[in-house]
Amino acid sequence: MTTLRSSSRDLWRAVLGELELQLPRPAFETWLKKTEGVSHDEHQFVVAVPTAFAVTWLERRMYQAIHKAVAKVAQRPLDVQFRVDIGPSSESGPGDSPDVSPGLEPGPSKSPELAQRQGLTRTPFNSRYTFNTFVVGECNRLAYSAAQAVAEAPGEAYNPLFLYSGVGLGKTHLLHAIGHICASRGQSVLYVTSEQFTNHFVSAIRNRTTEDFRSHYRGVQVLLMDDVQFLSGKEQTHEGFFHTFNDLHTSGRQVVITSDRPPSALALLQDRMRSRFEWGLIADIEPPGLETRMAILASKAAQLKISIDDGIIELIAKRVQKNVRDLEGSLNRIAAYLQLMNVDITYESTSRILDSVVSDSARHNIEPENIIEKVAGYYQFDTDALVGRRRTKKISMARQVAMYLLIYELEMSPTQVGRLLGGRDHATVIHGAGKINGEISEDRQLRQDVLAIKEAIFS
Ligand code: ADP
Ligand code: MG
Fold this sequence. Notes:
Layout: H1 5-22, H2 25-32, E1 36-40, E2 44-49, H3 52-61, H4 63-74, E3 79-84, H5 110-122, H6 141-152, E4 161-164, H7 171-184, E5 189-193, H8 194-206, H9 210-218, E6 222-226, H10 235-250, E7 254-259, H11 271-277, E8 281-284, H12 290-303, H13 310-319, H14 324-341, H15 347-363, H16 368-378, H17 383-387, H18 393-408, H19 414-420, H20 426-439, H21 444-458
Parallel strand pairs: 2-3, 4-7, 4-8, 5-6, 6-7
Antiparallel strand pairs: 1-2
Helix pairs in contact: 1-4, 6-7, 8-9, 12-13, 12-14, 13-15, 14-15, 16-18, 16-21, 18-20, 19-20
Bound molecules: adenosine-5'-diphosphate (ADP) and magnesium ion (MG).
């Protein structure tokens, strides 16, 4: 990776400018203001962040928005890596400054940790997502073993490997874990989300660089494709993926694909593609049972170097059931509380913190369609009008309110929102949502409207 300090810094400033328009002010001030662009190359962008906690927060809660803003400013999709960098801009490059706080660094032994740390500067993989930090239970044993087998002998064990599960159950974690191992062996590994793939492919067609595109993908030994369900509905992109997949597969390269549903339920995929996925191994990950949830919490608490007694771990594991991401979220909040208040964690305080986490995740059960319906209902339009082409002042405004709510309440990416709202592009969505976000503090009527709609949605 080349370290282009000044230009990375400027680029990141432009990204921050972009984000400042989109995000609620307190969120921007708290999490982004003190960040700095460190380096970038054609695949990734490294950003220095003051605390490990902020790293986690940015990765969890804001990655989509940041990724989009970077793609817009850099005019290509880049993976964004956050790392802890304390102190006023040290002159050191990414290799020798402290990249992760000890509190969040996984792995008990020293040497893999070191290897991983060095790996972080070369590879786009999250240093916390390794096989070591993955807790195995009945729910994920098959997926875990298959991922390990693939990492040990890419192209030989199961090809393709297809992992599917609901959100927050470890698919991306396992992809990164495979990536670490293969990259540390010097193999070329490419991790892409299907949105990145789509963008990359579409711009290759637009710029007539499809040959470069093909040779870029053909050159990799291991392709890790995350969230294939978001592969754009355009037939051309599917063709592109089909050919890429075939090129790699027939030459014995490893392909690993994740999805939120099994191949048989991927409506958008053509049959020939679906049957090819079935050549390899299909493994699903189930939500973890109570014991596994407790084991995961204990392991995460150890990584965070906080001591929580077993009774409280059990309390959390019983209350938070849906997925591992929510489990981690609860633990992070409790850790933050501990740090801020400098108090012992009690049953009562844990319970209170959990209440807010649980209501947070209840929000995430809200379907995007429900938001669109409520907005349309409030402004007395059909939902068709909202996703349609008409652009009277009132409809445009209602549409922008929908964009705003989908992004800020459901944390959907602008690309997803655009697709949902009748195939609008992500720049339109960023603009629309940003506009509402900007006006809401000045415009009393708008504020009341949005509040009323929110009440209808969340009650
Ligand atoms: P998905 O891609 O399936 O939505 P992720 O891989 O992003 O889920 O997982 C969400 C979070 O939960 C990540 O921080 C990941 O490290 C953690 N996680 C998921 N499963 C496990 C597990 N079995 N052991 C440890 N951490 C896990
Ligand atoms: Mg994922």
